Amino acid sequence: MRQVAMWDGVLLLVVVLTVLYCLWDARKPQKFPPGPIWLPFIGSGLAVLRLVRSLKYFHLMWSALAQQYGEVVGVRFGQDRIIVVSGREAIRAMYAKEQFDGRPDGYFFRMRSFGQRLGVALTDGPSWEVQRKFAVRTMKQLGMGRNEFVWVIEREVQELIDNFRHRAAAGETFPMAGSLDVALLNVLWVLLAGQRYELDNERLGWLAETIHRTFHVIDVSGGTLNRFPWLRFVCPESSGYGPMLRLLKPLWGFLEETIESIRKNPHCPNRRDSLISAFLVEMARAERHDSFTDSQLVSLCLDLFQASIETISSVLGFAFQYMLHHPDVMRKVQRELDAVVGADRLPTANDRLQLPYTEAVILEVERIATVVPGGLVHRAMDEVELCGYRIPKDAIVLPLLYSLQMDPAYWIDPAVFRPERFLNPAGDRVLQHELFIPFGSGRRRCLGEALAKPAVFLFFTAILHRFTIECADEKLPSLSAVDGITLSPQPYSLRLTERLCR
């Protein structure tokens, strides 16, 4: 009896301690932003997942929470604190504080870089400072942001147009999920590796498709896998671990193979004609920083690949999709191109200022499509105050750019595709809008912006200048997006007809 009583006492103690822990775990910190109630262990996870299933998109879920709780919303998912910042004033205040310049840590964010914090997109701290300065300096030395790099893009555009002309004449249709990918990858590959591939190269087409798929396995905050890493042992497929690993391994292999071939080049020790060769030169220096490693180089290349190609491809995919839905807009773009460029050449970057309507169309596509609706994810590096709330150290912070670019009080009718909102009343000058920041803001502004802007302009204008586009499918493609870390267009195909008489 005494032993039974003892075990009853132990059980009672365990129950009491468990109840006390659950009560403690469900408490929100003082001055924490408002949001859904917290349950022990899982926080707001169930409420968030139910809302995502209902609204079908993560950015719509975050937006719904912002409408309910305000411009700064606090959510707990597992042990992660997630802060959703929306609206002009709150997002501006967030970008102004250097405490939010960090990037999240956790299993998912380390998984893509060999279990370490590597690369430049999802890291912070002293090594990030060194690597970002190296990447920016090297890309500028290789021509990024200058005429010589724009000429690289224009050469790829010319190759693509010639390819499209022959294929269109043969009656082929063009699935937009992959028709531009090799040309776009070539632009970046010249920068990274100093070489290009033929447009029919199957391996590079496969590489682009693999990159796209990595953006649609897990959401921008790291998904369930980041909160509960042990799920990779219990349900590797549904947690995203299995699919992501299958995508990352061949990407790592491709980049490692390329790096090794450049390393073996007899001229490699002295040349800096690509980012990879410049990195290898840094690695060989006696006084090099200890962040210059093989794993860092692979991770840096992967960051630049993913950040640049996915967004450019998605913006162009949405752009042609909206042209199918708005043929009057497409014809107006083509008339402007005909008047400024003429029939004997392709558009160049120098034509941009003389094409205000075309530029406004691109900006309106970027606004209404909002390819990166949750912005680039941040981390609070210290406890910090934001809009009267206390944000704990290491909280994941999402600037909801969707709330800016679709703000009905600012844009009046944000769901309507209307390029004129980016033009002055006379229609001859492009307007800048303070709520339009598709590449983010502050020190962590997207590194690929200098590549994305000219690439989108040149590929979009060249195709519309040379071809009339029609939908190759029975129905127009849906304008609803495929969800993920970024938004991408639903699959669709184009039929191209060369414009001979202009």
Descriptive keywords:
single chain, Cytochrome p450, 19 helices, 502 residues, four-stranded mixed β-sheet, alpha+beta
CATH homologous superfamily descriptor = Cytochrome P450
Order of helices and strands: HHHEEHHHHEHHHHHHHHHEEEEHHHEEEE
Major sheet size, sense and barrel closure: 4 strands, mixed
Helix content: 40-55%
Q: Order of strands across the biggest sheet?
A: 1-2-7-4
CATH architecture assignment: Orthogonal Bundle
**Total beta-strand segments:** 11
Distance, first to last CA: 100 Å
The CATH class assignment is Mainly Alpha
Low-confidence stretches: none
Globular, elongated, flat, extended or rod-shaped: what is the shape? globular
Mean pLDDT: 86
Number of self-contained structural domains = 1
Number of helices: 19
Strand content: 5-15%
CATH fold name, please? Answer: Cytochrome p450
Content-based structural category: alpha+beta
Instruction: Output the radius of gyration.
Output: 25 Å
Protein name: Cytochrome P450
InterPro entries: Cyt_P450, Cyt_P450_CS, Cyt_P450_E_grp-I, Cyt_P450_sf, Cytochrome_P450_fam2
Cofactor: heme
Family: Belongs to the cytochrome P450 family.
